[in-house]
């Protein structure tokens, strides 16, 4: 009987070892397959990768179909990748089940295979899953596994988790470690902790860490210092100085804060528009565009410039509000033909379809 048990154990171990040996991590960069928009040429390329024996081709094809909303085909390719031993396919299938299908049981199952095979992002995602479900010990285990692959995001997450548990000393030491390892977000989180945490609030200490972070050329920290001078000290000159420093580091938040400071605190909409335009023209601040258009309307009743900037907003951001507002502005400007054109365009967006159709009806356009 004892010998049979030993035999079963040996067989089981052999299967485990075999499965571990079958898992493969390709050198192919999966980020090449992650795009905002895809064409039919992309899927042809991914299928060619498969034909050439590149196992990441299965993950690439799966990502392509997932982004198209064809989840069955995506699962099919990820499963084929798993059959070939692709660690990435396990990780991507976990993401599909988590982000799109909300089947967390299957997500966790696939993530664990990838994470145990050394996939850092899969381990991080497991940490996030357990963190959100308040299973801190389990979250810590997977975040650490991810950190061991070099992912400092996971160490940051551990720090944030410590704050949730009111383990403040552990959080402070963790954030310091992240900063010392060369990641400025460690000092940013430490600065924010001292700025906002009511139990251990020390704003001067917070600014000290923001400055360390800024010295590492992280623009968000300059914006945070500017916000401190603007809101806490009402020192607008000093705030502007720091917002400009953040802007020089191409931080969008800095230029937004500077523009709004002139708009709201200093009541200088002309200067506000100047800075929002600087943001758009120099660092492609897309969130600045709509604010420029609104400021022209609200502060100057300048419909011509508002139309110009809403057109830019529509081109850059494709926001339904931009299209609808263009219809309104042309209507206010007594240009019925162009108002109808933009309301018709607006009616294609489900968020504003009813409003646009109502406007078209008011202008005598039948819209059944």
Automatic annotation (TrEMBL):
It comes from the Bacteria. GO terms for molecular function: beta-lactamase activity. Signal peptide: none annotated. PROSITE patterns: TPR (PS50005). It is an enzyme of class 3 (hydrolase). TPR repeats lie at residues 152-185, 320-353. It catalyses: a beta-lactam + H2O = a substituted beta-amino acid. One of its GO terms (biological process) is response to antibiotic. Keywords: Antibiotic resistance, Disulfide bond, TPR repeat. Pfam families: ANAPC3, Sel1. The keyword ATP-binding does not apply. InterPro entries: Sel1-like (IPR006597), Sel1_AlgK (IPR050767), TPR-like_helical_dom_sf (IPR011990), TPR_rpt (IPR019734). Its EC number is 3.5.2.6. PANTHER family: ERAD-ASSOCIATED E3 UBIQUITIN-PROTEIN LIGASE COMPONENT HRD3, SEL-1-LIKE PROTEIN. This is beta-lactamase. It comes from Malaciobacter molluscorum LMG 25693.
